[in-house]
Structures are given as structure tokens and as C-alpha cells.
Amino acid sequence: MSSEEAGRLRLNPFSAGRGSRCAGRQRGHFRFNTISALLILVFLGLGLGLQGLIAGFPDAETASYAAAAAIAGAALLFVLPYWPTVIAAVAGIWAVIPVLLGADLQYAAAILTAGFLIAPAVEVINQWDKIVVLRLGKFHRVRGPGLLFLLPLLDSVAGYVDTRIRVTDFSAEKSLTRDTVPVHVDALAFWMVWDAEKAVLEVEDFGQAVSLSAQTALRESIGSNDLATLLSERARLGREIRSIVDAKTNPWGITIISVEFKEILIPKELEDALSRQAQAERERSSRVILGEAEAEIADVFRRAAETYRDDPVALQLRAMNMVYESIRKKGGLVLLPASVLESMNLGTVLGTAAYQKERRRGSGKENPGDAATREEEKQDDD
């Protein structure tokens, strides 16, 4: 299968798979079903029984040939569900069977003829289906689920319409956006038929019409928006496409429930360029954030410097605290220049602390806070 043929099948999913019934069109004048086949067999049995009561039962070979002919006629109606096929089958019953079998089976042939006329006229409609019936070529009525009897040779079914919600997959290949970027867009359309009469009589193939209308609206939407809008505002564009398509299909008895974007593909080169652009944007944002943090830290340091400038004692205490914390947490030695020690005035501070400690010992009284401090220093030494 060529790519062009594959594209056509993808564009019109109703043309492959489930057949024309999914599009609402009926191939033939009726639908020969299982009940119709059973009615043929029932009429065959009645005909042979009536033939036996009136003119005597035919022999087993003749009866088997008659049954085979009836089954062949039923199979033919499965393949060709047309009223002319029924007429041909009835003519075969009267012209061929007596000649081939050499038996007088007029009573059985009469009953079997009635069966071939009545059986195709019995329609069984599913719960989700509606059928459009024509009588002598004109619209007659729309019937819902259940059992339906058609007038033989006069009535015909124009189409079976599935009233359930359907989904159509459509796409726009190599469509240009407003900023001349080629894109490939896959989308889904959810829709349903609310008027079977209009859907069958107003448009030839409403399934294909919905698909083509949705594809046209998608191409128009792509051409009127740039790539950034197409990527970031999918929901809004889906609503716009839905309203456009629904305006076209509503006179056909069809409503579009929603349109959703499934996938948007861009060229590989453009994808790499967008990736690099996004990476550059993230790096720029990180640098801006880092610069703002540095500015905030510098402002804090500036305010601290103003405080220390007006209070030298606070600056010394801060320096001493930094030295103490570095020794206490990490341990080891800390080498400091003599100028730093002099600026901290550690000698005076340490001497004063030692003098106060000796004085307390000499007096025999010790401050509980000093005891706790001594215990903490002992634990640090251990």
C-alpha cells in the first residue's frame, strides 16, 4: 500500500474496517439476518409437510435436494440483499426445482415462495441503531430498536444509523503555521448523529463528510496561528475547530461534541533549536536568580558593616565567636595573625577571665554558670 493510499484510509476510517454500515449507508434493500434464515427453514418444513399431507411425502433424496436449494437461496440473500435477488430465487424455485428433481412439489414451492418474500422483510434493529425506510423510493419513516416488518418488494432500507458517540481520527500533514513552520498535527473528533433522517437523506456519506470538514477546519486553524500558540493553547483551538465543524454538520443532523489534539510534530532541526532555546532560557533564569541572591546577601552584609562600624566591641565579639565556633565544631588549631589577636584584645579578655576564675576559687564560691562552663570545656577536651 502506498503512502497516499494509507493517507486516504487514515483520513476516512469508515472506508475500511467496518464497512459502509458505519457510515450509515446500506448495501442492498434489506439486511438478511439470522431470524430471516430461520424463517426460510421454517417455511421449508411447512411446505414439505403440506406437500406430504396433500400429495404425499417426497422421498428423502428429493427432500434433501429441496432443502439444499432453500439454503443456497438464503446464502445468496446474505450476499446480495436485494429484492431482485428474491424474485430470482422465487423464479428458481418454480422453474429449476421441478425440472431437476422431476417431482411435483407445487405446494412446497408455494409455501417456500411465501417464505422467501416474508423472511427478508423481517428486520431486527439493535438498541443503538435507527433505520431510514423508503417506500417506493420515497421517505416513509425512521424506526428505532426492536422488530420491524417491511412490505415485500415495496419497502427498502436506505441506511442504518448508529446513534452512539463516535470518534474520528484526522490529521493535517505538512501544514504551515502563521510563522511559516511546517507541522504535522493529529487530532480526534467526537461526534454523534441526532437526526437519522437528515444524516441519510441530506448527505451521501456523512462519516467521510465529518472527517473532511474536520481536516479542513484543522488546516485553517493551523494557518491562522503561530507555532507557540498551537503548542500552548490546544484547548482553545480545539473549541474553535469544534464550533466551525459543528456549524457545517448541524444541518445534517450531526453534532460535534469535542475536538482534541492528539499529537503535534515539528521538524527535527526546529525541535533541536527549540530545545537549545529552552535550555538557554533556563540558564538565564538561574543566573538572574543567583544575581538577585547575591544582591540580597550584599545588602545584608552592608547593614551588618554599618552596625559593626558604629560598635567596635560588637565586631570584636563577632570575631571571637567565629574563632570559638571554628575550634569547637571542627577542632584542631587555628592560626591567626598577631594583628588579628591584637585587634580582638584577646590577652586582656583571657586574663580577666582567668583572674575572675582564681578569685572565685580562693573565696570558695563558684558560680553555677562557671561550673557548667568548666564541664563543657572538659567534654571538649575529651
Key structural traits:
Tetrahydropterin Synthase, Chain A, elongated, disordered N terminus, 17% strand, 3-stranded antiparallel sheet, 382 residues, 15 helices, alpha+beta
How would you portray this structure in words?
The protein is α+β, with helices and mostly antiparallel strands and 382 residues long. It is 60% helix and 17% strand. The chain is built from 15 helices and 8 strands. A 3-stranded antiparallel beta sheet has the order 3-2-5. A 3-stranded antiparallel beta sheet has the order 6-7-8, with helices on one face. Strands 1-4 form a two-stranded antiparallel sheet. Helix 2 (34-55) runs antiparallel to helix 6 (106-118). The longest helix is centred in the C-terminal third of the chain and has 43 residues, at 268-310. It starts with a helix and ends with a helix. The relative contact order is 0.07.
